[in-house]
Specification:
extended; alpha+beta; single chain; about 130 residues
Length: about 130
């Protein structure tokens, strides 16, 4: 399988895609330096169920300068953007970065606050006839 490295954000992704799945930059196939030929000793560190969740997880990895590859097992970006149903997005990192990335993402998940909707006043439903 051929991979490309985005010239804008550095994301490594399947060469069959026409745009970077992370930042949306269009692929320039004539740029030979864009092809990634390095080793792909990757492990899935986390699986996101939506594009916003993927963006959040990738931002954490970006902040720590941990490179990652996005894997869209159900057909790529177009299936995610064109369908309102959740799609899985595997975030993969090198084996050498796996423990550090896993610890960072686990820490972020533990810090996230769970909203107790029983304590939130959302108001009364509005009458649709008005």
């Amino acid at each position: 399988m051929n991979h490309l490295k985005c010239s804008y954000c550095g994301c490594i992704f399947d060469a069959d895609l026409k745009r970077c799945p992370d930042c949306g930059t269009k692929v320039k196939r004539r740029d030979a330096e864009q092809y990634y030929t390095g080793p792909l000793d990757l492990k899935t560190v986390m699986t996101a169920c939506s594009v916003p969740e993927k963006d959040l997880l990738c931002a954490i990895l970006d902040a720590e300068q941990i490179p990652y590859l996005l894997d869209f097992p159900e057909g790529g970006v177009s299936s995610i953007l064109g369908d309102t149903a959740s799609q899985l997005i595997h975030i993969q990192v090198r084996e050498s970065d796996f423990a550090r990335a896993q610890a960072l993402l686990q820490e972020a998940a533990e810090e996230g606050e769970e909203i107790d909707w029983d304590t939130i006043d959302v108001g009364e439903p509005e009458d649709e006839d008005e």
